[in-house]
Amino acid sequence: MEYLTKEQVEKAKKNVDKDKTTRSTWDIILSNTFTFINGMVLVIALFVATTFRFENLTFVFVIIINTFIGSFQEIRSKRALENLQLLSRSKYKVNRDNKTVEVYSEDVVEGEYLHLSLGDQVPVDGYIISGQIEVDESLLTGESDNIHKSKDDHLLSGSNVVSGSCLLKVTAVGSDSYINQFAQKSKKFKKYPSELRDNLNKILKIISLLMIPIAILLVLRGLSEGRSYNSIVLSTSGALIGMIPEGLMLLVSVSLAVSAYKLSKKKVLVQELYCVETLARVDTLCFDKTGTITTGQMEVVEISDKVEEVLKNYLSYFDDENATSIALKNYLKLEKSWHVRKIGAFSSKNKYSFIQVEGEGTYFFGADEFLNLNDSIPEHYQDMKKQGFRVLTLAKSSDYVEIPENLSYIGSVVLSDKIKENTKETFEYFESQDVSIKIISGDNHLAVLGVAIKAGFNPNAKAVDMSKVELDDFERVVLENDIFGRVTPTQKEAMVEILQKDKKTVAMSGDGVNDVLALKKADVSFAMNGATSAAKSVSNIVFLTDDFSVFYDILMEGRRVINNIQKVASLFLTKTFFSIIFAILSIIFALKFPFTPIQFTLISTITIGIPSFFLTFEENKNKVKPDFMKSVMTNALVGGGTLVLAVLLTNIFIDDSSKLGIICISLALLNGLLMIVRVSRPLNRYKMVLLMFLTIAAIMAVVIDVFYLDKSQLPFTLYDFVISGLMMGLVIFAHFILDKKVK
Predict the structure, then answer these.
(1) How far is the C-alpha of 205 from the C-alpha of 422, rounded, in Å?
(2) Going by C-beta distance under 8 Å and a sequence separation of 6 or more, which residues neighbour residue 203?
(3) Among 429, 500, 569, 728, which one is most buried in terms of CB atoms within 10 A?
(4) Within 681-717, where are the H helices?
(5) What whole-number distance in Å separates Cα of residue 212 and Cα of residue 214?
(6) Over the stretch 374-394, which tens digit does the pLDDT of each residue have?
């Protein structure tokens, strides 16, 4: 066997791709600073500055603070996730300095001698020196058929080893490898599909289209009325600032970044930030038994002397590193004394391996259902399957064959897999939340059922052997059953498609290369702790813990984010809706827009900024309603419409602009507080304290407006107080009535 020296490794090119899949710290700062909203705010700020009323520029500081907080949270989350990524990296065996060592994929060098086995994703290009494997190139070609590779065959990076083992001579690494050249564009940072982000972007697009014509018309209306430059600029700026939901998109990205950070503390790596949103909508969880419900660490429970004698030789010719093989090799004392003609490695498709032995025939080892035995295995082993044990069978043909036919039964091996803790409680919680669970496995369906029941799954669950299901009946079987055994990789993918077709939001967990197709197809995918590099590469979330209850934490984190963003989005858009409608009314009926930029900053800080920060990060385990944007827009219309009516009526009954401004800011603050009550229910002690603080802040804001911002300090007459009281009563009554109707 050939080896590289330390000097050769140091001089060789490493398998490092310069195109990063995550944003750098500088990219995060730039993306949070140079946004469309910040650009609009800057233009407005320049116009306000020309009035020399610099107190009206406070909205700029709010934007700066928001941008700083957003950048800080994203950078903190990024660093936490990068530290977690270091733990999730896959290792590969290479030959160096006369020994075989393990290195990370990025440390593999050009000219390397690389060992590959079942479950590995090929990290580089090269050709096979020895051994034979089957590879899945679906990530490269889209075709799921396995391809056989043997000595001198070329292997492309991005392929997944589904059977066998080999030694590879590396010919291309890093940016020169096939996968990096093929996927150069897709490897750059790109956004995960998001209903939330897309809907908010649509709203921002509509707002941006309305702002310029409204601004022009407000200026023209002001000029036609003969108002001063300062008056026109401040009132127009006030309307435009009100239209911009500054901080909303930032709050969304920060919420998702904080969620990823919180999950990282539980040893959960979120590789796609926006998949946290999708988690909240998951109503179907597809679990693979091995590695998800069970630890994947197998132990030999029962083996006969005859089987043990044969397997000592049999297993010594395989380099497999799967859990079953490791358990058997640790249990047996391996020896090589056969003259072997040909070896066929185990694959998830065939469920068996074979060895042709000179002078003896062919031995087969695998699942008895796939071995075409002359006689059935003893009833004892069927009972062991039902109890959740894994049973593998050894059989023999006197001929040299590759496909099992008329085999003679030799004996069976019984193995057990330890069930993870907290499975029962987690299953019970998902059932209480109407989140359906499908357990999908390549093992015997009765064995899977036995393990599932041990783990606390529904004892009345329906189990089915998918190898016996006809294509015409496939969809019905998937929808009507809970546990599926003998599932092929292509069937797993088809099952996810059927569930999605049935309007389900599907999360899929897996740990092996046979799960890759289904993981890619699912709405959200999890790679389990100890998963193969192939499974990790396509999954949105990677577990670095064996704690089964973390599924609960992930689902709750998704719900918290979406439910809380739904609340605070209503607060932001209430101000936006009011500003757009009242600006249009101002143009049509020659009304003065009631708020200057600094007044809107005060209103926004008290009724949006402070409460949204606290409400966004509170616990919320409620189910996510399907009509997300309908709920947001309904609340915004209630709040915005109520304020428009109240301010419009105030304009009719109050002529003095100074008194009008004081009354309108009071109405806006009252309306904002009622909106906070509306979106915060059910109220608790924490929220009541927040409301008390905001009420005191609102009173102080009115005082500041009267004695500092307005400075006129005109005495209010009895008539003014009556109108103010009536308008406040109208706001309270409107919220009370509309709240009942919306419910």
Answers:
(1) 46
(2) 245, 573, 576
(3) 569
(4) 685-704
(5) 5
(6) 888 999 999 998 888 989 999
Greatest alpha-carbon span in the chain? 114
**pLDDT 10s digits, 119-139:** 788 999 999 999 888 887 766
- Known catalytic residue at 705: no
Q: Give pLDDT, residue 558.
A: 85
**Dihedrals φ, ψ of 374, to 5°?**
-65, -35
493 token code pair: 């993918």
Are residues 732 and 668 in contact, defined by beta-carbon separation less than 8 angstroms? no
539, pLDDT greater than 60:
yes
Sign of the four-CA dihedral 308, 312, 318, 323: positive
One DSSP character per residue, 101-167 reads EEEEGGG-BTT-EEEEETTPBP-SEEEEEEEEEEEE-HHHHS---EEEE-TT-EE-TT-EEEEEEEE
Least confident of 69-78, 397-406, 523-532, 585-594: 69-78
The secondary element (H helix, E strand) that includes residue 425 is: helix 423-432
pLDDT, mean over the chain: 85
302: β partners: 414
Q: How many residues does the chain have?
A: 743
The answer to whether the CB of 119 falls within 8 A of the CB of 322 is yes
* One-letter identity of residue 241: I
Pairing relationship of beta strands 99-104 and 91-96 according to DSSP bridges: antiparallel
How much is the pTM?
0.69
Residue 508 CA, distance from chain mean position: 12
Per the DSSP assignment, residues forming a β-bridge with 390 are: 415
- If DSSP codes are grouped into helix, strand and coil, which group holds residue 707? helix
Look at residues 522, 559, 563 and name the one whose alpha carbon lies nearest to residue 541: 522
Give the span between the Cα atoms of 437 and 508, in whole angstroms. Answer: 10
Cα separation, 602 vs 665, in Å, equals 9
C-alpha to C-alpha distances, 161 to 154, 297, 510, 554, nearest whole angstrom: 13, 21, 16, 30
CA 665 vs CA 107, 168, 459, 671, 723: distances in Å: 63, 73, 62, 10, 14
pLDDT grade for 480, boundaries at 50, 70 and 90: very high
The one catalytic residue among 288, 523, 546, 720: 288
Per-residue pLDDT tens over the stretch 205-225:
888 889 989 999 999 998 998
SS3 of residue 410 by DSSP: strand
Minimal CA–CA distance to 44: which of 34, 57, 61, 30? 57
Do 738 and 730 meet the contact criterion of CB atoms below 8 Å apart?
no
Q: 260-290 in b/e burial notation, b at 16+ Cβ within 10 A? A: bbbbbeebbbbbbbbbbbbbbbbbbbbbbbb
Decide: residue 478, CB within 10 A, 0-12 exposed, 13-18 middle, 19+ buried: buried
State the sign of the Cα–Cα–Cα–Cα dihedral 540, 546, 549, 550.
Answer: negative
pLDDT number for residue 548: 79
Tokens representing 651 are: 């304009």
Residue type, 165: S
Residues 250, 204: Cα–Cα separation, whole Å:
13
Output DSSP code: residue 617.
T
Look at the block and give the residue holding tokens 């249009």: 584
- The Cα 395–Cα 410 span in angstroms is 5
The sheet carrying 352-357 orders its strands as: 294-303, 408-419, 390-397, 361-366, 352-357, 340-344
Tell me the sheet residues that pair with 419. 294
pLDDT digits (tens, 9 = 90+) for 412-453: 999 998 888 888 888 888 888 888 999 998 888 888 898 899
Tokens at residue 446, please? 């009765």
Instruction: Give CA–CA dist 388/449, Å, rounded.
Output: 7
Measured CA to CA, the distance from residue 166 to residue 127 in angstroms comes to 10
